[in-house]
Structure formats: C-alpha cells, structure tokens
Write a structure and sequence with these properties.
alpha/beta; Rossmann fold; globular; binds adenosine-5'-diphosphate; binds magnesium ion
Length: about 260
C-alpha cells in the first residue's frame, strides 16, 4: 500500500483548509480507508486544537526538530482517523526543520491509504514543502475575488514546482448574492470544482465541541458535502445520498397519498 497524498492549500488563512482536512479525513476514515491527517501549518497550528489534541506533548515540531520519533506524535481521531498535530509553541516552531518533512512522509506513506496535509497559508519555505510532496493539491477557495486571486498564486507556484492541482473545494458558499458563481471560479482558476460546501453554522458549533462537523452533525449541509467529497475521492457510492433520495421519495409518496389516496 502506498498512500495517496493530498495537500490542502489556500492563498490566505481562514478559507477552510483545516476544516476541510479534518472533515475529509474523518469521512475517508468512516469509509474504512486508513487515513492520516498531518498539520504542516507548523507556525499557526490548529488542527490539534479543532480535535482537542492541543495538549499533546510530542508533535510534528519535535519530530521535525529531530528529538522525537514520528510514531510517538500520531494520535487517534474519530472513526479510526490518525492525527499528526503540530505544536503551538513559538520555540517549537523555531526548532522545526520543514525539510525533514520529506523523511517523515517517507516513513508513513506505506502505512496508509490516504494522507491529507493541512498546508500553511501563503507562500513561505514551510509552505512549499507540503506542495512539493503532494501527489495532488486541493485548493480551498471562498467565492470572493480576493480568495480567488490568492488561490491563483498558489496554483502558479504548484505548477512551477511540477506538482498538480487536482481541483478546488469551494467553501462557505451561500452567504451573499454577489458571490462568484461556480462556473466563474472554475474558469478563472482553470481548475475543476470537486465540491461546493455551504456556509453552515454547524461547522463552528462542532468546533466548540472539539469535534468535526461530520461527526457532531452528520446530516448538516456542510457534512453532506464533505462526505460526498470523500466518497468521490475514494471512488465509492455515498451512503447518505441514498438516504436523501429515500426521504424525498417518502415525502412524494405521502403527498400523493394525501392528495389522491384520501388518507
Ligand atoms: N463551510 C463553513 N461554514 C461555516 N464556517 C466555516 C466553514 N468552513 C470553515 N468555517 C469556519 O471558518 C474559520 C476558518 O476555517 P479554517 O478551516 O480554520 O481555515 P484555515 O485553516 O484555512 O485557516 C473557522 O472558524 C471555521 O470554523
Ligand atoms: Mg488552518
């Protein structure tokens, strides 16, 4: 087994990289795929924070500083997901050598079906390594022009280092009437939209419980999008969608009975 490595990147912070990494990872794990998520945002780590792992003593910082073994920095997440968080101390960040990431990945790649790397925002040295070691880069973009302009810079960088952008997760859709359409985003970025994720307050509510939205509120609109993305990457049917269809048919049946069946 050799893991498929996806790096989740965006031009600027706050687009939804960590949210996408955690929820896509949890959904792939739920599908029975051996999945590791890794926080390569070693300066502004928050993957551990979202999952309640911020007190972990051994993190990617220690591994990249050469003072800990990677296996000791991997923790259990939901559904059997494995999580490699980064530390939150500035000292730890200063001691970490981003180039060691390549060795770290080499040790892990045989053990998983999927590895998702939560990349730092912007263009920096610790940001380029995750883009370079990915099999494919997934860009997280919000439907607004500044997010798109920044994502375009990352796409150019990805292509400069001979990596590829697989496509785009268009996140936080549906907040304004002026937002860019899916078609516009696809044509401006010249990249395929893999999934659109609605702006959904359940995402933030789930964070307050230190849980991914797909676990805390599995039927919420954002959860359905993340699960559909996981199913499409893994090439499997999505169980939730079938339920939805059944629910809709149930409603139509009930309506037909009420109208014509004289209940
Ligand atoms: N689809 C969504 N709906 C509502 N809130 C979201 C959504 N995606 C992300 N958020 C919220 O936006 C903020 C930034 O998301 P985050 O994933 O941390 O971004 P990044 O990792 O790119 O900096 C978080 O508070 C998160 O809960
Ligand atoms: Mg983040």
């Amino acid at each position: 087994m050799t893991a498929k490595v996806y790096t989740i990147a965006s031009g600027k912070g706050g687009a939804g990289k960590t949210t996408t990494t955690v929820n896509l990872g949890t959904s792939l794990a739920e599908l029975g795929k051996k999945t590791l998520i890794l926080d390569a945002d070693i300066g502004m780590a928050n993957l551990g924070l979202v999952l309640g792992l911020e007190k972990s003593e051994v993190t990617l910082h220690e591994v990249l500083a050469g003072t800990a073994d990677v296996e000791d920095a991997i923790y259990d997440g939901p559904n059997g997901l494995k999580v490699l968080p980064s530390g939150i101390s500035l000292q730890g960040f200063q001691n970490a050598d981003p180039e060691k990431m390549i060795d770290v990945m080499g040790k892990l790649v045989e053990k998983y079906d999927y590895m998702l790397i939560d990349a730092p925002a912007g263009i920096s040295k610790d940001g380029v390594v995750p883009l370079a070691i990915a099999d494919d880069v997934i860009l997280v973009v919000n439907p607004e022009i500044s997010s798109l302009a920044d994502a375009l810079k990352i796409k150019v960088l990805v292509e400069m280092i001979d990596s590829t952008v697989m496509g785009v997760v268009l996140n936080r859709v549906g907040t304004t009437t002026t937002e860019l359409s899916k078609q516009k985003v696809e044509s401006l970025l010249d990249a395929r939209i893999l999934e659109t994720v609605p702006d959904d307050t359940n995402v933030r509510n789930a964070s307050a419980f230190r849980m991914p939205v797909v676990v805390k509120y599995p039927e919420s609109p954002a959860s359905i999008s993340f699960k559909r993305l996981a199913a499409s990457l893994a090439g499997v049917e999505m169980p939730v969608e079938t339920e939805e269809v059944e629910k809709k048919e149930g409603f139509v049946d009930r309506l037909a009975r009420a109208l014509f069946g004289g209940i």
